[in-house]
Amino acid sequence: MEIINRRQRMASVARKVRREQDRTIGLVPTMGALHDGHLSLIREARRMCDVVVVSVFVNPTQFSLDEDFDRYPRDLTKDAAILTDYNVDYIFAPTIEEIYPKDFSTYITVSGLSEQLEGVSRPGHFRGVATVVTVLLNIVRPDFAFFGQKDAQQTLVIKRLVRDLAFDTEIVVLPTVREESGLALSSRNAYLNEGERRAALVLYRALSSAKEAYAEGERSGSRLASIVQATVAAEPLARIDYVSVADADTLESLERLNDRTVLIALAVHIGRARLIDNITLNRKKNGVAANA
Ligand code: AMP
Q1: Which residues contact 145 (CB under 8 A, 6 or more apart)?
Q2: In this structure, are residues 232 and 215 in contact, taking their beta carbons and an 8 Å threshold?
Q3: Which end of the chain is less enclosed by CB atoms within 10 A, N or C?
Q4: Residue list, ligand 1 pocket, CB within 6 Å
Q5: What would the pLDDT profile of 55-105 be if each residue is shown by its tens digit?
Q6: pLDDT tens digits, residue range 183-241?
Q7: Atom of ligand 1 nearest to the CA of 187
Q8: What domains sit in the chain, N to C, each tagged with a CATH number?
C-alpha cells in the first residue's frame, strides 16, 4: 500500500494501472476517521475492482464557516493502519493545496437536488461535495466509485453530476451500516458523550416508528413526518433540524405516498454533533417492491 499526497503522482499511478496493466480501479472517497461504514464500501470495492484507491480528505469547501471543519476528527496514521488490513492499494491523502491550487475558481453546482433537505440547512454544502468529487474523479478516473446510502442526498447529487457531465465512472451505493442499537455509524458520533450517544438512538427509533406506521398502511407524508418529529421531540437532548418525507429519486416532498419509493430523512442536533439518518420505503428491485 502506498500513501500518495500529490495529485500528479495519483494521476500518473492511476493512468499506468489503466493503460499499461489494463486493470479496473475502484475509488472510495472519505473524510477519514474510518469506521465500519467506510469499510463496507472498501470491502465492496475490493470485491469488484482490481485496484482500490481510498481518498482521505476533509474537504473545506463543503463546510460552512460555523461548522466543524477545524475539529473534524483526523488521524491518518490510524486510518492507514486500518486500510493495510483491508488490502487497499493506494491511499490518496492530499493537502488542501493539492486539491485546490492557488486561484482555484471553478465550482460545480448540481441545481435542484442540492437545494433540498441538507441544502436548506447547509447552503453551499453540495457545491463543495460536487466540486471535490469532480476533482477526485478526474485525478483517479476510476471505473467505479463507492458511496453510502447514509448520505442519501449526496448519492443522488453525485449520480446526477456523473450523468450530466458524462463521467466514465459507475456510482455504486451501499446500505447504511448501523450499530446493533440501530445508530448509524458516523465519524461525527465521536463528538457524543455517553448520554448523548444514548440520545442519538432516537434517530433510528423515529425512522423505525414511521416505517411501522407505513407497514400498517399509513400513506400520508405529513402524518409520517409527524410521527418522526414526535419521537425526536420526546428526547430532551435532541433538537430537530428537519424531517423530510420525499420521493427517493427526486427529493420532491410528498403528501400522498401511494406506491412511490419514499425517502424519510432527518437531521438532529445532539450536543455538539449534527447527525443525519434516513430510510427508504417501498424500494423497487427489478420492478418488484422490496424491503428497504
Ligand atoms: P465521510 O467520511 O463521512 O465523508 O463518508 C465517506 C463515505 O462513507 C460516504 O460515501 C458515506 O456515505 C459513507 N458512509 C458514512 N457512514 C456510513 C455508514 N454508516 N454506512 C455506510 N456508508 C457510510
Answers
A1: 26, 27, 28, 29, 133, 137, 158, 169, 170, 171, 172
A2: no
A3: N
A4: 30-31, 37-38, 40-41, 147-148, 150-151, 176-177, 184-187
A5: 999 999 999 999 999 999 999 999 999 999 999 999 999 999 999 999 999
A6: 999 999 999 999 999 999 999 999 999 999 999 999 999 999 999 999 999 999 999 99
A7: 3
A8: 2-174 (3.40.50.620), 187-282 (3.30.1300.10)
